Amino acid sequence: MTQITRRGFVTAAGSLAALAMAADTSAGAAAAPARRRSGREFRGMWLACVANRDWPSETGLSADEQRAELLDHLDAAVARRLNTVVLQVRPTADALWPSPHEPWSQWLTGVQGRDPGWDPLGTAVREAHARGLELHAWFNPYRVATHSDPTRLSARHPARLNPGWVVPYGGKLYYNPGLPEVRAFVQDAMFDAVARYDIDAVHWDDYFYPYPVAGQYFDDDAAYEEHGAGFPGRAAWRRNNIDLLVREMAERIRSTRTGVRFGISPFGVWRNAGTDPLGSDTTAGVETYDDLYADTRTWVREGWIDYVVPQLYWHIGHPAADYATLVPWWDDVARGSGVDLYIGEALYKAGDPAQPDAWQDPAELSRHLTLAADRPEVRGHCFFSAKEVTTDRIGAMARVVADHYPTRVRAPR
What we know:
Elements: H1 13-23, H2 27-30, E1 42-47, H3 63-79, E2 84-90, H4 106-109, H5 120-130, E3 134-139, E4 143-145, H6 158-161, E5 166-169, E6 172-175, H7 180-196, E7 201-204, H8 221-227, H9 234-256, E8 261-264, H10 288-292, H11 296-301, E9 307-308, H12 323-334, E10 340-345, H13 364-372, E11 378-383, H14 386-391, H15 396-404
Parallel strand pairs: 1-2, 1-11, 2-3, 3-7, 7-8, 8-9, 9-10, 10-11
Antiparallel strand pairs: 4-6, 5-6
Helix pairs in contact: 1-3, 1-15, 3-5, 7-9, 13-15
């Protein structure tokens, strides 16, 4: 029987590996898709640190306890036959390494700026590679805080030293993407990790301009007045700000660190077809192009990034955003671009009683991979997130392993 610690982690990789091996002989294995993947394939998991979502399990643990939990997560990835860990290392304009630009993350010690007594990113890179895993460093470019009180930031936080950079919105603090000095600073802050560590990729998620909040206004009036001349409107200017961040970071990585890839994991709907004939046959309430000012389709079509992981966090048959509709749409976008397409999977929904009936079926996630296997541009999947990879509430992850991951493989390069 698998042994679980007080924080819910498997205490030995062998225990979880035994579960995965046992799954191969389950009834699910008989339902394996006829066409197995060959060669390289992306099999990743996100390891989120913000609000102690996955790791550390709580603030204030000792360095040894934090390190042990991190290694448990890496061992779980190996046992599930994954090959990539996407570790959140800059969740809220802070750092999980000794950065000269930003303070130590509060999610480590509970106090922003307090040295945890070890180097989490350096350890993660070394230990991941020792296990045959890639380590993708996950950065959030513009989120400053999950609250709206600047005085709660550490005294030397750049956002406190440069209050004109910050916009409060929806109960949170954000750097203003419309300021060139902000764009330069956040690139410097992120690139410090690229320059100092043997990471395999830079990874961003879906947070650019913030998700819309009813009744709230993102006040970038002064920045638009100063820098928005020549654009047909504020929306076009905002999209250009994000385009510049993507292009400049891509060029900087490629010109400095050969072999380090650049990937982005956007919200899964670029635009609905009702808004734009190039969009997907969906009716999602959020469209990245219009609401987050992130022209994700262009980033792929122009080859500005190396891989894209759209977060397709809906079940097959969802009325507004059907997984079975969005996978072919993204497959078409990626075709001929040279950009690898991996699909972001909502493992966290499996077995959650608040989710629709489809997510109560342990086979739902496996069906996603079966459906995606027929799309030639799809080269893998990434699971949100690490906690569920280990705990596997209803056995959905074990079913994926049994049906689709008979052996370990290397990630695409």
